[in-house]
Amino acid sequence: MSNVLRYVDDREVLIDVQNLRVEFKGKGRRPFVAVRDVSFQIRRGETFGLVGETGSGKTTIGRAIVRINPTAGGTIAFRGRKINGTIPKELDREVTRKIQMIFQDPMASLNERSKVDYIVSEGLFNTRNYKDESDRKAKVQQALLDVGLLPEFASRFPHEFSGGQRQRIGVARALIMEPEFIIADEPISSLDVSIRAQVLNLLSELQETKGLTYMFISHDLSVVRFIADRIAVIYKGQIVELAETEELFKNPLHPYTRSLLSAIPTPDPRVEKEKRILVYDPSCHDYSSSKPQWVEVKEGHFVLGNEPEVAQYRSEWRRLQEMGGIGVK
Fold it and tell me: Do 175 and 205 contact (CB within 8 A), yes or no?
């Protein structure tokens, strides 16, 4: 199945993923397909949300883009140049500088035996992207200031900081490379609720001041709604629906998307008590005679389905328009 997606937008395509396939091979076993025929484009300056439950392949896609996970098929292009598989050393160095990743666990991703000065500088050391020692220290100080930390924190160890401060250190480590594209992998899932808004606001401010482009990975649709311009919903290694954020919340079409939306907590306890949680059952799809295709049911709104399902989705979308959308708030 070809799952090619071309999103109509005047902005430059920064990341172009087409028919991506990622496999993990074990000894004497058939390879496990973690990501299957995934395609999407990310435009410069936007925040692209990737949402799905644990084990759906979200992080695997992010790690494939930064060349941590090898790909078994498809292409990943950065500014029009293929960056998966074997590439020239010069291009590899450019990808290392221009594409950075903020990891999920701020404690596990920071070296406990190193001071913040070295942790934030590690990318500079690996790429030799500084003139001299004074230039390196100046860059570290500026990176810490950019994320709201004091320059004197550079002489401390990670265990001396709170969870929110550690995540800010992780953001500073990415920023110091002066990247164009940042993959934020569940950056707030391990933080207290009171700290989450601070980190989300920080990422938004940095995007505005530095012209960054994000891929924001999360299992929480309510969080992604706050920060993302478009959202792709992934289930067991395949993207099943993609649309602009408010369009997806107002007119969800795929049963899995509706299931995720129904599980979002509601602040009103009376509404929460009466709410009906939709459970997604993959057996609702009959792909024995008609295979699923990636179809645009409305401009910018894509969904995975076979011919009968697509016809149903189009009819459902028109019905939702007449009703004003289901209005997930």
Answer: no
Q: How far is CA 212 from CA 11, 126, 173, in A?
A: 13, 22, 15
The structural architecture, per CATH, of the domain 13-323 is 3-Layer(aba) Sandwich (3.40)
pLDDT digits (tens, 9 = 90+) for 72-116: 999 999 999 999 999 999 999 999 999 999 988 877 888 999 999
SS3 assignment, position 84 = coil
Nearest-angstrom CA–CA distance, 247 and 244: 5
Cβ–Cβ under 8 Å, residues 297 and 234: no
pLDDT 10s digits, 165-189: 999 999 999 999 999 999 999 988 8
117-120: long-range contacts (C-beta < 8 A, 24 or more apart)? 117/154, 117/155, 119/158, 119/169, 119/173, 120/144, 120/154, 120/169, 120/172, 120/173, 120/176
Distance CA 51, CA 56 (A): 9
CA 245 to chain centre: 14
Structural contact between residues 187 and 167, judged by C-beta atoms closer than 8 angstroms: yes
